[in-house]
Amino acid sequence: MPEPTRNPDLTVKVGSLALSNPVMLASGTVGYGDEISKFVSLDKLGGIVVKGLSLEPVRGNRPRRIAETPGGMLNSIGLQNIGVEAFVEEKLPKLRQYDTCVVANIWGTTVDDYAGVAARLDREEGVHALELNVSCPNIKEGGISFGTDARQLHRVTSAARAATSKPLWVKLAPGVTDIGLLARAAEEAGADALSAINTIRGMMVDVARREPVLSTVFGGYSGPGLLPVALYLLFEVKRATPLPLIGIGGINELDHVLQFMTIGASAVQVGTANFYNPGFTGKMVDELIEWCAQHDVDSIEELVGSLQLPAGF
Amino acid sequence: MPEPTRNPDLTVKVGSLALSNPVMLASGTVGYGDEISKFVSLDKLGGIVVKGLSLEPVRGNRPRRIAETPGGMLNSIGLQNIGVEAFVEEKLPKLRQYDTCVVANIWGTTVDDYAGVAARLDREEGVHALELNVSCPNIKEGGISFGTDARQLHRVTSAARAATSKPLWVKLAPGVTDIGLLARAAEEAGADALSAINTIRGMMVDVARREPVLSTVFGGYSGPGLLPVALYLLFEVKRATPLPLIGIGGINELDHVLQFMTIGASAVQVGTANFYNPGFTGKMVDELIEWCAQHDVDSIEELVGSLQLPAGF
Amino acid sequence: MLEKRLVVDSVRHLNARCFVVAFRSGEVAAAARAGQFLMVSVTDAIDPLLRRPMAFCELLGPVTARTGFSILVERTGRGTTLMSRLQPETELEVLAPLGTAFRPPSDAEDQCCLVMGGVGSAPFPLLAGDLIAAGHDVTAFIGGRTADHLLCADDLDRLGARVVLATDDGSAGHHGLVTEPLQHHLDEATGGVTVYSCGPTPMMRAVDDIARARGLPHQVSLEAPMACGIGVCLSCVVPVQEADGGWSYQRICREGPVFDADSLIWEHPDA
Amino acid sequence: MLEKRLVVDSVRHLNARCFVVAFRSGEVAAAARAGQFLMVSVTDAIDPLLRRPMAFCELLGPVTARTGFSILVERTGRGTTLMSRLQPETELEVLAPLGTAFRPPSDAEDQCCLVMGGVGSAPFPLLAGDLIAAGHDVTAFIGGRTADHLLCADDLDRLGARVVLATDDGSAGHHGLVTEPLQHHLDEATGGVTVYSCGPTPMMRAVDDIARARGLPHQVSLEAPMACGIGVCLSCVVPVQEADGGWSYQRICREGPVFDADSLIWEHPDA
Ligand SMILES: Cc1cc2nc3c(=O)[nH]c(=O)nc-3n(C[C@H](O)[C@H](O)[C@H](O)COP(=O)(O)OP(=O)(O)OC[C@H]3O[C@@H](n4cnc5c(N)ncnc54)[C@H](O)[C@@H]3O)c2cc1C
Ligand SMILES: Cc1cc2nc3c(=O)[nH]c(=O)nc-3n(C[C@H](O)[C@H](O)[C@H](O)COP(=O)(O)OP(=O)(O)OC[C@H]3O[C@@H](n4cnc5c(N)ncnc54)[C@H](O)[C@@H]3O)c2cc1C
Ligand SMILES: Cc1cc2nc3c(=O)[nH]c(=O)nc-3n(C[C@H](O)[C@H](O)[C@H](O)COP(=O)(O)O)c2cc1C
Ligand SMILES: Cc1cc2nc3c(=O)[nH]c(=O)nc-3n(C[C@H](O)[C@H](O)[C@H](O)COP(=O)(O)O)c2cc1C
Ligand code: FES
Ligand code: FES
Q: Looking at residue A104, which CATH number applies to its domain?
């Protein structure tokens, strides 16, 4: 006879921050939580990462902003957001009422921008961590993305670090030759955790019109087709640093959540799946409980980093 | 009444080399042509790129060598091949009988290896071009891939260039911060054309066993999910160099062939689709003829590079 | 907003491109308003990945006890091709109802002009029924490339609307643009008129020019590629006039799909 | 080798995990030999992307005018789960027949021992029929975890084979490994014996130890994840002994799936 099932412990720690479970909503795919909360109770989730905030409101890119791809999609929203001030005044009060971790995803086009947003949020209760989106061009340095150059990544992370005492997560960008280098730069600059990955660049063409589908020619690729790339990059990040990790990219079923965690993610973020299945993350939490019970896993943290590697790795 | 349809001209030129049509078989996905020719007549295709050849035969990696991913697959075959000598003696005579372009994909783990294989094939009739697979570790230089470092790519391309007077194609690897840099390095070293792209790294985990699915932990991601990444990288290569281009990655329907060509590919190579649909390339040629007729395209070369970009690009 | 697995009741093919899918769901039908839409998942697999937005076309069953609703679909790509092969009793995931509805004329006396092109006819049977039930005089102007592209004419006629047709090739009704009979009709009209339009952008713009010139209220239903349909992805935006003279992006899936034409900026402003 | 779109004739569920799919195709059935397999596409969409390899289980219709064939499938993952929901008259893309077949015993007098575990039973009804038709005495040793995991017992019995069962839990037949009754049988046997096996690797290895110790010819049917099934991807390799004492990789889809057990290297050599 099987033992009466104990309630599995789904709590996970990302550094000093405890999440009630490892399932989070990824930045840019759930706004500030208003609409998605009709489909999944935020109280049920480990956390929500809000749409990337900048110092000033940003209109974003001209449409057409999305394209479908085989098993995925491209977006070029252009980081449209209401700005950090409006976020604090209009959105944060509501978010504070949920029993979940609220992570503010922030970005800028100069190092000072990042520091400014971080400083503004540092005073705010109910913001449990900051996540730096470094997939943005550094306008003062010729437009090269903060996330592709270790020196720049170090600078922007250090500046944010100096501006806040809240847990600081750096969200790594794919599309670099050696993501481990970037991971170490963020670690050295004081990041508390690393999220991996942001979207990778992709493009689709409208052959009939002989034009790119997106107004911006190329955009960020997300969705199931991204999964194996995201898992691999998380693995490389894990090899490069001892920091806690958050896995992101292509999650479309529970097995994908478990794969990220086995490699070493303490938590995961779900993005595109919220679009085609807004109740998805709630289902993941239910299935995770069931999976733990079925597999005699008392605490989901047992799974984190449990991957066994062949000799030589 | 529509005009009686003229026979559209499908011939394309890749530099000095003329192909009867733009549809080719990609390296590593059709061996040396024996088996696939039961499903598609090689005479019907623009060309075949044979499995990557090295100086000596290579056994390849220990199984398990493949993993399925959402909308794609990973492989870690490990470049198993019969070696250039056996290729010339056992496989080339048969390939010579087809009315198609035969491209020898070659690789090594030192610069001299590449030059050696190139020199060996330089004397052989019926090899119409050489394609350098540079997604291999340079063993003499700490195992960093030839394809990720512009200086190394320059050296290996120069060495192959010196060893052959046949058209020399360099097959670019994704997974680099700036593929344009690599494209220019290959151009400067004397490449006649560039193929883009090879597989990108990916990983899948067997959660039940807490192990990577592949024996080599990670492998090369190919198939439909790769398409938008491949299109984007081809676009970047096109911006970086005036060389003729061959588009590769995720082709799963005619529209994908047309998208690559619109961006600037003179020809395309089909890889993974040969696995799940071995007659696929023949179908592509038929559909291409039909598409040209329906769209009043007299010569498919009209399409090559016809992409119209918004201002600023 | 409801997230539901619904059963397809029937699929009726109108011609080689267009078809009507009826779903069983009293619950969704009771909540749906003319102009609103649903997001339909066309497969349980990952390709095509995104749900497809479709307008409510008609509600089925008695007014007080709806049993379901229908959508009118034009086959244009992969998702709608899969939909065209749907069989009765198939189950599909649906989010509904979404977005804003058409608003009734502010003047209860107004007659209503419904101007539509191609599959833009889809939301109008539902709207026409409501307007006629509320006592408005309704004229439907239906445009299309050929007679085959005129949709919902019979339904609108059955509901009690006056139906005016126009085709580019003259194969049915007026030979020319649908805005020509509209203009003619407005020239003759006495009393207030509220205009509603849905169709290709050039058509809606032309209708808007006509309505603006005459100071008539005009509501349009817009389309854009949508990833989510619920307001979270920001993919479906259009530039909209702000009170302060500036402009901002609004989401077609939340602030729309029905907009006051007045507020729209047809020519995208420079960023 | 044929590339065909075939029609599913019927789907018969044996238990919660296993089912038999019958296809109509006289052409494929006429070409298929025991031990060979087919690659079945489980969807027209891109996920799951790859075809699934499945052994021919039985040929249908009269020997001289085959009308189709069946496969026996165990539901283990996404592709086989989709297959378990197949409906009659569905069309599927199939490549067949592929790979090498079982070879008859070199001695026409040999009796044959067929040793199978779990879904490894799949190729044996076809083989048993051929061997019995050729006059061989056939004994089938069927192993499984529980009675529910014993497959093809009735079919093999019907075809005229002697059937011996073994289960890990003793719920049917011998309580223990299938190799125990095999060993017992061989101890008693007089005259030549040829052994055939298919099932979990530990089972095939154990059978091989027994066959080798007695110098009996032994053919095994192997499995590996396959991307193409036609020999072009090199994903399905196993290490095989070379005449010169070295080893090389051979493709299960071309040089196999049936191998002489003698040639196999069960413990992967160091590279
Ligand atoms: C609010 C709203 C209501 C609609 N109502 C109807 C209706 O009642 N009947 C009907 O036939 N069509 C309607 N459409 C358009 C319909 O959604 C598209 O024709 C459909 O999504 C095309 O999908 P596809 O897979 O066939 O085409 P594909 O070209 O393969 O689609 C590729 C991608 O582009 C998107 N897309 C392509 N064209 C459009 C478009 N015109 N509008 C929005 N997204 C598009 C698809 O959703 C998908 O994400 C409506 C659109 C919106 C926004
Ligand atoms: C020559 C041959 C004959 C076979 N005959 C039969 C048969 O008659 N009946 C039967 O039920 N099964 C048979 N199998 C095994 C069957 O192919 C796998 O169980 C099936 O592919 C699993 O697919 P899935 O999508 O359900 O599992 P998933 O685990 O979702 O599959 C993921 C991937 O791994 C591959 N894979 C997983 N397990 C296996 C396996 N054991 N062997 C090969 N590939 C695998 C799949 O093909 C797919 O590419 C045979 C395999 C081979 C090689
Ligand atoms: C429409 C859209 C908008 C996004 N906006 C942001 C953003 O503002 N900041 C950010 O760090 N990531 C953003 N992302 C990236 C996601 O958070 C996530 O990293 C990525 O989509 C991969 O996960 P997925 O495959 O689950 O979607 C966005 C993604 C999408 C699809
Ligand atoms: C199993 C397999 C083996 C491959 N072997 C080679 C190779 O030997 N040399 C090479 O340059 N590319 C090789 N490739 C890469 C393909 O040629 C191609 O670049 C890649 O698969 C992307 O195209 P696809 O998505 O159409 O498969 C291989 C790909 C696969 C899937
Ligand atoms: S479709 Fe996502 S915000 Fe409108
Ligand atoms: S499955 Fe491709 S070579 Fe065997």
A: 3.20.20.70
Q: Which residue has the tokens 């009754």?
A: D181
Do residues A261 and A268 make contact, with C-beta atoms less than 8 angstroms apart? yes
Contact yes or no for D199/D143 (Cβ under 8 A): yes
Q: Output the residue whose Cα is nearest ligand 2's atom 30.
A: D77
Residue written as tokens 């402003």? Answer: C269
Are residues C243 and C213 both part of a single domain?
Answer: yes
| D104 belongs to a structural domain | no
pLDDT by residue (tens digit) across C118-131? Answer: 999 999 999 999 99
Within-domain flag for A6? no
**Nearest ligand to the C-alpha of residue B26?**
4
Which amino acid is present at C219?
Q
Tell me, yes or no, whether C94 and C116 share the same domain. no
Asked if residue C268 belongs to a domain, the reply is no
Domain assignment of residue C227, yes or no? yes
Split into its structural domains, chain B has a count of 1
Query: Do both D130 and D215 map to the same domain?
Result: yes
Cα B104 from Cα B107, distance rounded (Å): 10
Residue among A71, A74, A306 minimizing CB distance to B225: A71
Round to whole Å and give the CA distance between D175 and D153: 17
Residue D234, by phi and psi: left (phi above 0), alpha (psi -120 to 50) or beta?
left
Residue C4 pairs in a beta bridge with: C94
Provide the residue-wise pLDDT of chain A in tens; the chain has 313 residues. Answer: 455 456 899 999 999 999 999 999 999 999 999 999 999 999 999 999 999 999 999 999 999 999 999 999 999 999 999 999 999 999 999 999 999 999 999 999 999 999 999 999 999 999 999 999 999 888 887 778 999 999 999 999 999 999 999 999 999 999 999 999 999 999 999 999 999 999 999 999 999 999 999 999 999 999 999 999 999 999 999 999 999 999 999 999 999 999 999 999 999 999 999 999 999 999 999 999 999 999 999 999 999 999 999 988 8
Q: For residue range B276-299, what is the model confidence (pLDDT) as tens digits?
A: 999 999 999 999 999 999 999 999
Q: Across the interface, which of A28, A59, A278 has its CB nearest the CB of C3? A: A278
Residue B224 pairs in a beta bridge with none
Q: Give A224's contacts in chain D (Cβ within 8 Å).
A: 47
How far is the C-alpha of B174 from the C-alpha of B63, rounded, in Å?
25
C85 and C119 share one domain = no
Among the listed residues A192, A204, A3, A210, the one whose alpha carbon sits nearest the alpha carbon of residue A103:
A192
As for how many domains chain D has, the answer is 2
pTM of the full structure: 0.97
Residue C129 sits in the same domain as residue C206: yes
Domain for residue C271, yes or no?
Answer: no
The three-state secondary structure class of D243 is coil
**Which CA distances in Å does C178 have to A144, C110, C116, D206?**
51, 21, 8, 81
Q: A interface toward D at CB cutoff 8 Å? A: 70-71, 224
